[in-house]
Amino acid sequence: MSDPISNFIISIKNALLARKETVVIPYSKLKESMAGILVREGYVAEVSIDDSAPFKQIVLTLKYVGKMPAVTEVRRLSKPGRRVYAPAGQIPKALGGYGITIVSTNKGILTDKEARQQNVGGELICQVW
Q1: Are 101 and 91 in contact (CB under 8 A)?
Q2: Which listed site, 18, 34, 63, 83, has its alpha carbon 20 to 30 Å from 44?
Q3: pTM metric for this prediction
Q4: Region for 122 from its dihedrals, namely left if φ exceeds 0, alpha if ψ lies in -120 to 50, beta otherwise
């Protein structure tokens, strides 16, 4: 797998399109941080770590509002072939501020609002709305 973050994003999108209740993703600290942000911002209902398998896995319980998924779209910004960085003042707002931009900073994985408050820039990972 050349891009595990894209795999994480596409797994969530595919599970939402198939109306799945949960999705299982291979574990990494970065993916765990991103999943924590999605839970905190209300896009995913719950995240848990499954240690019983031979390899750790992240189990995301997806959130639906009525019959519609809470996540409408997820867009990957920085890719392995083209990394995208931005200072704190130039971090883009997703969907005019209705969504979130996930940023990898030297203070950890943050949302665009948190990064602006702490005045730190970094690599733009993805946008969720």
Answers
A1: yes
A2: 83
A3: 0.94
A4: left
Return the HEC string of the chain: CCCHHHHHHHHHHHHHHCCCCEEEEECCHHHHHHHHHHHHCCCEEEEEEECCCCCCEEEEEECEECCEECCCCEEECCECCECCEECHHHCCCHHHHCCEEEEEECCEEEEHHHHHHHCCCEEEEEEEC
Relative to beta strand 64-65, strand 57-62 is unpaired
